[in-house]
Amino acid sequence: MSDNRNKIKNAKLTAPQMELKHGDQMRFRIIFNIDGEIRRAFDQRGWERAYNLHDNLFRIKIDIELKSNRKKLAQLSSFHKASLFWTRNPKLPYRIWIFIMKDDATFYPSDVEEARSLLFDVEKELTIDTSQFDTNVQEVYAQIRIWWGKHNYTPSCELRAKTNKLSLRI
């Protein structure tokens, strides 16, 4: 289900070098932000409401495919998860707070903006072997697909975007 209230912004593909030898390892970095209603609705008041309705886990599925023309060179799948919990932390003025899990690491944000950044700002790396390329110049781009399910503060959503193209010389 696609929607125009949320979008992927600033999708960018970078590489440390543009000329490589055949058979070298090439690292690509993909950066993007999820913006729109979901980012605005993701605040402490919404967490409190969701927790009271037993809606304690929010999960975003991220699929990234690195492509050259139509050929898939590499694929990366990951999840960003937010879990709501009851806290008695005296440093926080709220009773319901959140922790974020991404890339097998857990983060306890100190404020709402940090939580939004951890959950909705994505930076991933993909490494491929240049032997997958033909010789000469290749145009490479990343195709991004993200989605999440229905919650009391958001309907289910699927978003797609493409990054800029890089011209590589092998």
Largest sheet, in brief, is: 7 strands, antiparallel
SSE order, one letter for each helix or strand? EEHHEEEEHEEEE
Helix content: 10-25%
Strand content: over 45%
What's the number of helices? Answer: 3
The Cα radius of gyration reads 19 Å
Structural shape: elongated
Unreliable segments of 5+ consecutive residues: none
Question: Can you put this structure into words, describing what you see?
Answer:
The longest helix has 9 residues, at 44-52. This protein has one domain (6-163). The strands form two sheets. Strands 3, 4, 5, 6, 8, 9 and 10 form a seven-stranded antiparallel beta sheet that branches. The protein has a three-stranded antiparallel beta sheet with strand order 1-2-7. With 170 residues, it is mainly β. The chain starts with 5 loop residues before the first strand and ends with a strand. The mean pLDDT is 89. A hairpin with a 2-residue loop joins strand 3 and strand 4. The chain has three helices and ten strands. Helices cover 14% and strands 53% of the residues.
Summarize the structure in short.
This protein has helices at 37-41, 44-52, 112-120; strands at 6-14, 25-36, 57-68, 71-86, 96-102, 105-107, 121-129, 137-148, 157-162, 166-169. With 170 residues, it is mainly β.
Keywords for this entry:
3 helices, 14% helix, seven-stranded antiparallel sheet, 170 residues, three-stranded antiparallel sheet, single chain, mainly beta
Ordered list of secondary-structure elements with their pairings:
Layout: E1 6-14, E2 25-36, H1 37-41, H2 44-52, E3 57-68, E4 71-86, E5 96-102, E6 105-107, H3 112-120, E7 121-129, E8 137-148, E9 157-162, E10 166-169
Antiparallel strand pairs: 1-2, 2-7, 3-4, 3-8, 4-5, 5-6, 8-9, 8-10
